[in-house]
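Hi,

Apologies if this is the wrong queue. I'm a grad student, and the batch job for Fe-S oxidoreductase from Subtercola vilae produced an output file that my downstream script rejects. I'm not sure whether the problem is my script or the file. Here is the sequence I used:
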Amino acid sequence: MPALKSALIAPPLARAGFLYATLVGVVWGAVLSTGRIRRVNGLFVFTGVPQWAFSRGGSCIGGVYLTDTNAAATVLEHEAVHREQWMRYGLLFPLLYFRAGTDPLTNRFEIEAGLEKGGYR
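Support response: The file is valid. Your script probably expects a header line. Output copied below for reference.
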Protein backbone atom coordinates (compact mmCIF):
# COMPACT_ATOMS: atom_id res chain seq x y z
CA MET A 1 0.00 0.00 0.00
CA PRO A 2 2.80 2.56 0.66
CA ALA A 3 3.91 2.28 -2.98
CA LEU A 4 0.34 2.87 -4.17
CA LYS A 5 -0.05 5.85 -1.83
CA SER A 6 3.27 7.28 -3.07
CA ALA A 7 2.15 6.88 -6.66
CA LEU A 8 -1.22 8.54 -5.94
CA ILE A 9 0.37 11.58 -4.31
CA ALA A 10 3.10 11.98 -6.91
CA PRO A 11 3.03 15.63 -7.97
CA PRO A 12 1.50 15.13 -11.46
CA LEU A 13 -1.32 12.91 -10.15
CA ALA A 14 -1.93 15.00 -7.05
CA ARG A 15 -2.08 18.13 -9.22
CA ALA A 16 -4.55 16.51 -11.60
CA GLY A 17 -6.70 15.41 -8.64
CA PHE A 18 -6.56 18.89 -7.14
CA LEU A 19 -7.61 20.48 -10.43
CA TYR A 20 -10.44 17.99 -10.90
CA ALA A 21 -11.69 18.58 -7.33
CA THR A 22 -11.48 22.34 -7.89
CA LEU A 23 -13.54 22.03 -11.07
CA VAL A 24 -16.17 19.99 -9.20
CA GLY A 25 -16.18 22.59 -6.40
CA VAL A 26 -16.57 25.50 -8.82
CA VAL A 27 -19.49 23.81 -10.57
CA TRP A 28 -21.11 22.88 -7.23
CA GLY A 29 -20.64 26.42 -5.93
CA ALA A 30 -21.83 28.10 -9.12
CA VAL A 31 -25.02 26.04 -9.12
CA LEU A 32 -25.82 26.49 -5.41
CA SER A 33 -24.37 29.85 -4.37
CA THR A 34 -26.74 32.76 -3.87
CA GLY A 35 -24.13 35.03 -2.29
CA ARG A 36 -20.86 36.67 -3.09
CA ILE A 37 -18.21 34.77 -5.05
CA ARG A 38 -14.63 35.94 -4.62
CA ARG A 39 -11.02 34.78 -4.61
CA VAL A 40 -9.12 34.93 -1.29
CA ASN A 41 -5.83 33.23 -0.27
CA GLY A 42 -5.87 31.24 -3.51
CA LEU A 43 -9.39 29.98 -2.80
CA PHE A 44 -12.57 30.48 -4.76
CA VAL A 45 -14.99 31.40 -1.97
CA PHE A 46 -18.69 30.76 -2.60
CA THR A 47 -21.09 32.14 0.01
CA GLY A 48 -24.83 31.73 0.23
CA VAL A 49 -24.53 27.97 -0.28
CA PRO A 50 -27.30 25.96 1.45
CA GLN A 51 -26.14 24.27 4.66
CA TRP A 52 -27.06 20.80 3.40
CA ALA A 53 -24.39 21.15 0.68
CA PHE A 54 -21.39 21.18 3.04
CA SER A 55 -20.34 19.95 6.47
CA ARG A 56 -19.71 21.96 9.63
CA GLY A 57 -19.26 25.66 8.84
CA GLY A 58 -18.11 25.08 5.28
CA SER A 59 -16.21 22.66 3.06
CA CYS A 60 -13.05 22.94 1.01
CA ILE A 61 -13.09 21.01 -2.26
CA GLY A 62 -9.80 21.42 -4.06
CA GLY A 63 -9.28 25.17 -4.32
CA VAL A 64 -12.91 26.02 -3.53
CA TYR A 65 -14.51 26.91 -0.20
CA LEU A 66 -18.29 26.51 0.06
CA THR A 67 -20.20 28.10 2.95
CA ASP A 68 -23.32 29.97 3.84
CA THR A 69 -21.84 32.90 5.80
CA ASN A 70 -18.75 31.47 7.55
CA ALA A 71 -16.12 33.44 5.63
CA ALA A 72 -14.19 35.46 8.22
CA ALA A 73 -10.54 36.18 7.41
CA THR A 74 -9.27 33.66 9.99
CA VAL A 75 -11.56 30.94 8.62
CA LEU A 76 -10.29 31.60 5.11
CA GLU A 77 -6.69 31.29 6.36
CA HIS A 78 -7.66 27.89 7.82
CA GLU A 79 -9.31 26.84 4.55
CA ALA A 80 -6.25 27.96 2.54
CA VAL A 81 -4.27 25.31 4.44
CA HIS A 82 -6.87 22.72 3.39
CA ARG A 83 -6.35 23.93 -0.18
CA GLU A 84 -2.62 23.19 0.22
CA GLN A 85 -3.50 19.75 1.61
CA TRP A 86 -5.63 19.09 -1.46
CA MET A 87 -2.70 20.17 -3.64
CA ARG A 88 -0.33 17.82 -1.78
CA TYR A 89 -2.57 14.74 -1.72
CA GLY A 90 -4.94 15.22 -4.66
CA LEU A 91 -7.96 12.94 -4.73
CA LEU A 92 -6.44 10.85 -1.95
CA PHE A 93 -7.06 13.74 0.46
CA PRO A 94 -10.75 12.98 1.22
CA LEU A 95 -9.84 9.38 2.07
CA LEU A 96 -6.93 10.43 4.28
CA TYR A 97 -9.12 13.06 5.95
CA PHE A 98 -11.87 10.54 6.66
CA ARG A 99 -9.32 8.08 8.03
CA ALA A 100 -7.96 10.79 10.36
CA GLY A 101 -11.37 10.89 12.05
CA THR A 102 -14.39 13.15 12.21
CA ASP A 103 -13.42 14.83 15.49
CA PRO A 104 -11.65 18.03 14.41
CA LEU A 105 -9.78 18.22 17.72
CA THR A 106 -7.89 15.00 16.87
CA ASN A 107 -7.92 15.16 13.06
CA ARG A 108 -4.34 15.88 11.95
CA PHE A 109 -5.50 17.89 8.93
CA GLU A 110 -7.66 20.19 11.06
CA ILE A 111 -4.85 20.58 13.59
CA GLU A 112 -2.42 21.47 10.78
CA ALA A 113 -4.91 24.03 9.42
CA GLY A 114 -5.28 25.60 12.87
CA LEU A 115 -8.09 24.69 15.22
CA GLU A 116 -8.66 28.23 16.47
CA LYS A 117 -8.72 29.73 12.96
CA GLY A 118 -11.18 27.04 11.93
CA GLY A 119 -13.46 27.92 14.83
CA TYR A 120 -12.91 24.68 16.73
CA ARG A 121 -11.62 26.33 19.93
